[in-house]
Amino acid sequence: MAFAGNLLWFVFGGGIIAWLLWFLAGVLFAITIVGIPFAKAAFRISVFAAFPFGRELIDGRLIGNKRIAGTGLINFLWCILAGVWLAILHALAGLFCCITIIGIPFGLAHFKLAQVSFAPLGKTIVSTDLAKAAKARDANAQLDKSLS
User: Fold this and answer.
1) What does the chain look like in DSSP terms, one character per residue?
2) pLDDT in tens, 78-122
3) pLDDT tens for residues 28-63?
């Protein structure tokens, strides 16, 4: 089902345009030395924007990745300079897609992109099943910690 959704999204739902725009943004960021962390995030989002069904972007710490120092500061800068505006644009595109019944899955994909556009650094692309398992494990760990 995810393959069919990704194929329809890529061809008809704006996936090719979202992928291309995010990829070009990554190239522009990579040209500058200061923008290299942003470029890595934009390239990651471009892959996710091309094929969002059956995948999620989650915090890398949930699956054992170490957080790079300064990620919070860079996410803050991203949020102020671009994240808010990109999230608003993806949310609006999602609302427009949800006007029709057939566009609802595409709207949900835009909502996922809005969420990751807000603060993408430190995120990792994983399957939906792995994301659910990682979130459940983290929730259980937090519950155990609060109960002890």
Assistant:
1) -HHHHHHHHHHHSSHHHHHHHHHHHHHHHHHSSTTHHHHHHHHHHHHHHHS-TTEEEEEGGGGTPPPPTTHHHHHHHHIIIIIHHHHHHHHHHHHHHTTSSTTHHHHHHHHHHHHHHHS-TTEEEEEHHHHHHHHHHHHHHHHHHHH-
2) 888 888 988 999 999 999 999 988 889 999 989 988 988 888 888
3) 989 988 888 888 888 988 888 888 888 888 887 888
Number of residues that make up the chain:
148
Residue 93's domain spans which residues?
2-147
Domain tally, the chain: 1
